[in-house]
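Work Package 3 (structural annotation) set out to generate three-dimensional models for the target panel prioritized at the project kickoff. During this period the team completed the workflow that converts sequence records into discrete structure tokens, so that structures can be stored uniformly alongside our sequence database. As a representative example, we reproduce one entry of 334 residues exactly as it appears in the project archive.
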Amino acid sequence: MNVTRMFDGSMSMTFYTVNYPANVSLKTFYFKHETVKNTRVTLALANSPSSTLVHISESHNSHKCGRNFVPNKDGSLDRSNTVGIIGGVSVDSTLDFLKKLVEWGSKEGKECPPFTLCSDPKLGDDLLNYELASFPSLYTRKRPCNVDHSTILENLRRKKAFLEQGGARCLVMPCHLLHMWHADVSDGCDVPILHMAECVARELKEAKLRPLEAGCSSRIGLVATDAILKSGYYQKKLQNEGFEVVLPDKATMEHTVIPAIEALDRTDIEGARNLLRIALQVLLVRAVNVVIIASHEMCELLPQDDPLRKKCVNPIDALVRSTIKWYRSVEQSS
């Protein structure tokens, strides 16, 4: 992972060596975000191309960490409330989650949840190939997809095992596509793996939304890539909470959503933004209470002051809040 690129403009670093398992090169640095306290982070670079960031402490003294933790000699962490994060197809999505976890988790002087972040470029490339294969108009001019489910699943299981062995007691995946394998990865897992769609559905249930049409249940719109829509996991989790899920019809997908994704592929941001607005308006006309945008790239298209943004839900936000809630509950019970 290119740390300079990740935190460019918002980090000052001081390096020193820390003991870690064989075949792993480990360095620790401090970074200071504009709105976050100084935080010590450890970067472990193993033989594989994956990278790991470990949030160690808010103390500059590695020997006086107070209630925070330091790695054991075997690389594990001395806390029962560490969050393990598995990065996916979008580095931006992972960093958006991490930024919000640190900022929101540190509000009112509270301690930010300790975390371990594992990001593997190989997994990201495989996921990207897999997702793009669902858009032939995008991929026929690029490389063909030769990645199957089992390759991605085995990679995910290795990441899960690595984080569990490293001390993580709760796992999260701030990537919509990764949740297609959530059930398989969770099978036999000793720690909870938060499901992004469940987090969103639970928050919407707690919001007690009122139906916009008499005699109907509350309706939730969903905009996502073709791969996410076909997987059906958002629909299932929302329906389990009693919501009616409204998807873009075929014409809306063909003339707005897919072209918006193609516009993003060409870096035509304004064109993609206008097409997304049309797709959202079409769903809102169908009396949906809110629209879930299950795509980090599409979520970022709408400016903060855009009125349509108030009618949209970013699942990453719900995942962050659920992660912090899990951490606080563990803290209170310990």
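The CA atoms of residues 223 and 294 lie 6 Å apart.
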